[in-house]
């Protein structure tokens, strides 16, 4: 009888959130990202995974592979990648995954998600499936970064989980505590999640607001000496006219957000306020950087060469990414592919000459920015044509074409906040830019959306083998469809 009462007491404690202390408190010992499919936004991913707490210190490896539709090779592909590029992921005898390791993998083309782990992190197949299921709704919507984060967080919860936090015990707790207490527990989880989101927003907002506040006098001085006779100077000054109003709004949101109590931050409406604060603070932080670069570059003050380099950084990155885009098998033979290849060859050298002319003083900063804008517009037009060609090649119906176009447009818009703060970016409409990274992510997302619509089965059973190439390898892990 005493044992039963003790179990019931523990059950009730677990349900009410006061179970014996052994919460996950170990941050990742290392985070390795192999984004072969080019679908992840690593700043967001790395920050979220670094903040995740495991029950035991764990090395996290995240792998994306662009496979082939209709195949089931994710297990063997991950093993092959480990053998060729990360032998430290495998035990010295070559038979298992290394201790302390967790691998989260996704193939957006074959629509497979996989989880793999060392023997000391091993969980049952049902728990592996639970980790994979945590990602699937997001992956079906092509939210690759968010889905990966959800999978890692679920794995952190389940690996090395104390017995009283197990699903079986929680079920027992639910029976012992009753339906009312279960409802209390659900509300507690929602409120805790809201507090976590609010904390992240406050951290993001405070970083941006502190930077803007510290630079406020300098920003004002920079704005006063931007030449209004310059086309770009005038456009940036137009942006600055709203700076004080936006700063006052951000200051008000800062005070409002920090006045919230812990209880207040449990409410979704107040989480929204902290999100508005964070977004506005980051927007102002980007704008004051642009104001500083505009003043420095147009007046050729000390450091103007570095300011120019910051204007060309994103375009240089696009040029470097183009060969990978042009090498895609499905793109071969398309007129749009040939046009992009010609652009890449000519404009890479042209961009280098433009930078040299700016540094030598052979061209004014205004004229250089005009030419930089022309290159951006040319690339955007070519990528738009290539997008249409690739969509028509893959889509079979009008609805599929529409679905792919929406996915590519969404990726292009979502990429705006990820671009570096530049003069052209601050004064131009969003559709003047079409980054190659956004094109790649959008195309994969579009294909994924079409593949989802084409199949009636939303998910498949787990696959646990490593294929003929795996040999005698028997590491813990599995994959499934989404």
Number of strands: 5
CA-based shape: globular
The helix content is 55-70%
* Major β-sheet profile: 5 strands, mixed
Count the domains: 3
Mean pLDDT: 87
Element-by-element helix/strand order: HEHEHEEHHHHHHHHHHHHHE
Report how far apart the termini are: 47 Å
Strand order of the largest sheet: 1-2-3-4-5
Our Rg estimate from Cα atoms comes to 26 Å
Total helical elements: 16
pLDDT under 50 segments (min length 5)? 1-9, 14-22
Keywords: Membrane, Signal, Transmembrane, Transmembrane helix
Protein name: Membrane protein YgcG
Which features characterize this protein?
single chain, 482 residues, alpha/beta, Diaminopimelate Epimerase, Chain A, domain 1, 3 domains, five-stranded mixed β-sheet, 16 helices, globular, disordered N terminus
Describe the 3D structure.
This protein is 63% helix and 6% strand. The relative contact order is 0.12. It folds into 3 domains: 23-161, Diaminopimelate Epimerase, Chain A, domain 1 (Roll), CATH 3.10.310; 179-299, no CATH class; 303-453, no CATH class. Strand 1, helix 2 and strand 2 (59-64) form a beta-alpha-beta unit. The model is unreliable at 1-9 and 14-22 (pLDDT under 50). It has 482 residues and is α/β, with parallel strands linked by helices. Residues 462-474 have a biased composition (Gly residues). Residues 33-372 form the DUF5129 domain. Residues 1-24 form the signal peptide.
């Amino acid at each position: 009888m005493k044992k039963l009462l003790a179990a019931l007491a523990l059950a009730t404690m677990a349900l009410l959130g006061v179970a014996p202390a052994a919460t996950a408190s170990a941050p990742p010992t290392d985070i390795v990202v192999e984004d072969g499919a080019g679908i992840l936004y690593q700043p967001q991913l790395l920050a979220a995974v670094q903040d995740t707490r495991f029950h035991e210190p764990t090395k996290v490896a995240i792998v994306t592979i662009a496979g082939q539709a209709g195949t089931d090779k994710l297990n063997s592909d991950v093993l092959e990648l480990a053998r060729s590029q990360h032998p430290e992921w495998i035990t010295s005898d070559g038979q298992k995954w290394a201790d302390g390791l967790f691998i989260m993998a996704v193939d957006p083309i074959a629509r497979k998600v996989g989880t793999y782990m060392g023997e000391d992190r091993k969980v049952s197949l049902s728990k592996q499936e639970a980790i994979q299921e945590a990602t699937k709704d997001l992956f079906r919507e092509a939210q690759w970064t968010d889905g990966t984060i959800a999978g890692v967080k679920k794995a952190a919860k389940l690996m090395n989980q104390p017995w009283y936090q197990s699903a079986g015990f929680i079920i027992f707790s639910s029976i012992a505590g009753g339906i009312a207490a279960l409802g209390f527990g659900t509300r507690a989880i929602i409120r805790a999640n809201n507090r976590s989101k609010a904390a992240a927003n406050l951290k993001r907002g405070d970083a941006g607001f502190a930077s803007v506040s510290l630079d406020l006098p300098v920003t004002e001085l920079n704005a006063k000496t931007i030449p209004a006779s310059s086309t770009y100077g005038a456009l940036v000054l137009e942006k600055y006219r709203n700076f004080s109003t936006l700063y006052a709004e951000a200051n008000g949101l800062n005070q409002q957000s920090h006045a919230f109590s812990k209880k207040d931050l449990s409410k979704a409406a107040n989480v929204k306020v902290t999100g508005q604060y964070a977004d506005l603070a980051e927007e102002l932080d980007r704008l004051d950087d642009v104001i500083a670069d505009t003043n420095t570059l147009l007046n050729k003050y000390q450091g103007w060469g570095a300011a120019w380099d910051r204007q060309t950084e994103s375009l240089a990155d696009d040029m470097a990414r183009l060969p990978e885009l042009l090498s895609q098998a499905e793109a071969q033979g398309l007129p749009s592919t040939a046009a992009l290849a010609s652009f890449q060859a000519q404009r890479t050298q042209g961009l280098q000459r433009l930078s040299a002319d700016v540094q030598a003083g052979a061209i004014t900063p205004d004229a250089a920015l005009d030419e930089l804008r022309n290159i951006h517009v040319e690339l955007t037009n070519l990528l738009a044509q290539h997008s249409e060609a690739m969509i028509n090649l893959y889509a079979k119906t009008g609805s599929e074409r529409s679905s792919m176009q929406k996915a590519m447009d969404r990726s292009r818009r979502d990429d705006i906040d990820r671009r570096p703060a530049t003069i052209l970016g601050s004064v131009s409409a969003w559709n003047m830019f079409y980054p190659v990274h956004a094109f790649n992510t959008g195309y994969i997302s579009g294909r994924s959306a079409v593949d989802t619509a084409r199949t009636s089965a939303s998910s498949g059973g787990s696959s646990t083998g490593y294929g003929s190439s795996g040999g005698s390898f028997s590491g813990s892990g599995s994959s499934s469809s989404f």
